[in-house]
């Protein structure tokens, strides 16, 4: 159980932006971003078929093709198959996340949480990633933000399909770990309540950030810790707003969030630190967090991320965040 034994380092790289998440990124810029991550020492890369309908996997596979495979860890996801048939990417129904990846490939995306679907998805990902193995496989977005009220039915099909296949592949040593990759806490809480199957870790995006962590902190994180299930924190910048971008939850940030980020930024400036340092170090401070995986589509972001992790953040900054009720009083901070 757990993924720390094989995860190379606590700073990984999330490739959702490389699927043309918000804009059409030139291939050479995408390649340079992965190269910058590699040169900075990053050895854990997360991707998914969903990111640009295969585009992020293809770009990542190309960028890592000449790197020694034993030196890095890869995670990708199952739950959506990418077909050869095409569709209008801007017309996809993505629930709350409409418009995402409309600049990606036009290949048709279909949900499939079945056992056969999971096996086929992994086979397709191996081809796009140009590799013979994947270290961690996450079951993707079996969650209310994509499924609304029907999420429990989708979850049940994953529970009896993809979950069992991934557990079997893990037990056979074909993959090293598996879990769910979601933007919501609820599917992870339900999974931890099951007797079987048993995941190794969860990728939880956007729910353990400076802007949003209370729910995860109350029940999910203690339960995961007790069961030896690690957390990989995705979306540590809440999809961009915490790093100087304009997105929150993958949409234009509302005024209330912009105002809260301004308060955080003002405090960070007062203590002479960057808001990126505060965001990344906060997400990593909880003992159940095994890694944090910020995303980026420009090479220059990588050096910022690496620098943010080594910045010295004064204990008084965290105290001020608590005093100003900007973080939960019981949220662990690095100096605890
Ligand atoms: N359901 C799931 O399993 C799930 C869901 C969400 C995320 N994830 C994983 O978590 C990873 C990280 O999440 P994320 O990429 O969605 O969001 P994120 O890491 O919270 O934020 C990434 C965004 O921050 C922006 N950014 C970074 N530095 C910046 C700066 N100095 N100024 C302005 N903007 C800046 C980047 O912009 P640029 O693009 O311009 O560099 C990028 O678009 C994903 O890539 C994915 O691997 C998984």
Automatic annotation (TrEMBL):
Phylogenetic lineage: Bacteria, Bacillati, Actinomycetota, Actinomycetes, Streptosporangiales
InterPro entries: AKR, NAD(P)_OxRdtase_dom_sf, NADP_OxRdtase_dom
Cellular component aspect of the GO annotation: cytosol
A Pfam family recorded for this sequence: Aldo_ket_red
Domain of life: Bacteria
Name of the protein: Aldo/keto reductase
Positions of the NADP-dependent oxidoreductase domain: 11-322
GO molecular function: oxidoreductase activity
PANTHER family in alphabetical order: GH17980P-RELATED
Organism: Planotetraspora kaengkrachanensis
Coiled coil stretches, renumbered: none
CDD domains assigned: AKR_AKR15A (cd19152)
